Amino acid sequence: MFKLLTWTWRGFQTITPLSRRITRSAASSTLKFANKVAVLTGSTNGIGLACARRLAQEGAHVVICSRKKDNVDKAVAMLQGEGLSVTGTVCHVGKAEDRERLVTTALEHNKGVNFLVCVAGVNPLVRSTMGTSEQIWDKILEVNVKAPALLLKQLLPHMENRGQSSVILVSSVVAYNPTVELGVYNISKTAILGLTKTLAKELAPKNIRVNCIAPGLIQTDFIKKISEEPAAWNIIKEREAIQREGVPEDCSGLVSFLCSPDAAYISGETIAVAGFSPHL
Ligand code: NAP
After folding, report:
1. How far is CA 34 from CA 57, 140, 156, 248, in A?
2. Rounded distance between C-alpha atoms, residue 212 and residue 117, angstroms
3. How far is the CA of 220 from the centre of ligand 1 (A)?
4. Where are the alpha helices (DSSP H) in the chain?
5. What's residue 6's pLDDT?
């Protein structure tokens, strides 16, 4: 790093130029999410990782998690290597004890949580609803629908009275226009629209906003699996109005906005990030 030799009251010292001397803490205190804590599920890859990076770049301490320890360690090391304030733990959102560990990890930082971003979601099979076993029904609904609500219940006492608390759920455009091949996954993502509206009403008296994003086709490993089914891929692709696939950063900008004071009077909304409107 470039340094200057200069006189101070302690005698000659090497100092870094002013622009570099602004310490991380001084710089981060001017950021919009300074002193905020964000918990993100499914955040070691794809959309969740992009959201974690964005909120941390804007000053939040972020707590990331996913099922595999290697993925958590790698993502934490990468984000910390970028100078961001990040901790992480293993958490399969469908397991109560893992969710409890996630809450404990989050509280280690600041005794409270401002933002919960529930990104983790699964689609273990590309198959019609009628071709889906009860076991797969349970898995999809447990991870995609029940887990965000149960995690929020565990975090709620630590989100109340934080002044600026916000929950973001992740649905999909298939919630509006189901793709037959995605079967129960469509249904789980439609249920998230209902969960968003219900929680928004329930938590408004506590000044906690609940909103949702509905991604279209976003380039991640998740869609790679779906795209192995040509029919599913083509149906999704035909819907796109803006002729490109989305990238995780298309979602993270929206999540940042929804968490921010600019969205202070927005709750119960779902916004598509899809290059088209599923309502038209
Ligand atoms: P991705 O790149 O495959 O990332 C998924 C992340 O979730 C990984 O970090 C994964 O890590 C973690 N994860 C998976 N199952 C989990 C579980 N049970 N508990 C905790 N973490 C879990 O996927 P993505 O595209 O970012 O998708 C994330 C969300 O966006 C999903 O809810 C999906 O439905 C939604 N979505 C995606 C698209 C798209 O086009 N990509 C479109 C609409 C909606 P581990 O393997 O270590 O657990």
Report:
1. 10, 35, 21, 23
2. 9
3. 8
4. 18-21, 24-29, 46-57, 69-81, 96-110, 134-141, 147-159, 183-203, 221-227, 230-239, 248-259
5. 37
Q: Burial, 235: exposed, middle or buried (Cβ in 10 Å; 0-12, 13-18, 19+)?
A: middle
* pLDDT (average), residues 30-50: 97
Q: How far apart are CA 156 and CA 112, in angstroms?
A: 10
What is the C-alpha separation between 30 and 50, in angstroms, rounded?
22
Atom of ligand 1 minimally distant from the CA of 71: 47
Q: Identify the residue whose C-alpha is closest to ligand 1 atom 10.
A: 42
Concerning whether 185 is annotated as a catalytic residue, the answer is yes
C-alpha 93 chain-centroid distance: 13
Tens-place pLDDT, residues 88-142: 999 999 999 999 999 999 999 988 999 999 999 999 877 899 999 999 999 999 9
Q: Of all protein residues, whose CA lies closest to atom 16 belonging to ligand 1?
A: 120
Q: What is the pLDDT of residue 235?
A: 61
Q: Which phi and psi angles does 178 have, rounded to 5°?
A: -60, 140
Query: What is the rounded CA–CA span in Å between residue 205 and residue 203?
Result: 5
**CA separation for the pair 210, 259 (Å, rounded):** 9
Q: Which domains does the chain show, CATH number per domain? A: 26-217+248-273 (3.40.50.720)
